[in-house]
Amino acid sequence: MEKREHILVVDDEEDILELVRYNLDREGYRVTCAATGEEALRLARSGQPDVLVLDLMLPGIDGLDVCRILKSDESAGSIAILMLTAKGEEADIVRGLEIGADDYVTKPFSPRVLAARVKALLRRRDAAPRGPEEIIREMELVIHPGRREVKVGGASVALTYTEFQILHLLARRPGWVFTRNQIIDAIRGEDYAVTDRSVDFQIVGLRKKLGKAGAYVKTVRGVGYKFQVGDPEDL
């Protein structure tokens, strides 16, 4: 059976390249490998992979620059990018997400987890984001943008303007990781004077008001927040 999705893996460590290639190949993907940023750019533009698994620490053009260049390239901007980064590089993770990376995995990593994250990116790519006026229903949580109304278990929840904006932003792209700066820019505009800590404060208030449904709003340590679908009892 012909392999469908094409994954481009970029890392300057040969053993990691082979580990990732072997495990993604077992999942049925067509895998191409590269060891430098320059080669990654060439293969991404010519081969149009579905997902780019990208190490940040590369010789020459590093992973962050590869990400920035591809996301600004009309011919390659739709490629989903999964960053590979060493633990403790939180600043690089945030920078990568803010310039367009779609997800990240920290080293050392489990090959099964990496394969699952690749699969999730492919699902996310194929699922269109919810429309700005679309009613969002997730188990007992209902978000009605037109009415600016939120209900949990049929009971109305009184949210502030900012709390509603944050919840709606996250819920429209379930599974998508938003940095604090992205949240600020989306709900107030780039010129709104607010700190990262105030976003955290809004999230605390939002979760408290949502009760059990507050489990949908997940913290991504050192990076930001996302909306996680599923039964809140299992989250």
Report how far the terminal alpha carbons are from each other. 36 Å
Main sheet? 5 strands, parallel
Spatial order of the strands forming the largest sheet? 2-1-3-4-5
**CATH-defined topology of the largest domain:** Rossmann fold
CATH level 4 superfamily of the largest domain: Response regulator
Question: Radius of gyration in whole Å, from Cα?
Answer: 19 Å
Q: Whole-number average pLDDT?
A: 87
Counted by DSSP, the helix tally is: 8
Shape: elongated
What is the oligomeric state here? single chain
CATH class of the largest domain: Alpha Beta
Order of helices and strands: EHEHEHEHEHEEEEHEHHEE
Sheet/helix structural class: alpha/beta
How many strands appear in the DSSP assignment?
A: 12
| Name given to the CATH architecture of the largest domain | 3-Layer(aba) Sandwich
Q: Roughly what percent helix? A: 40-55%
Q: What low-confidence regions span 5 or more consecutive residues with pLDDT below 50?
A: none
How much of the residues is beta strand, in percent? 15-25%
The overall number of domains is 2
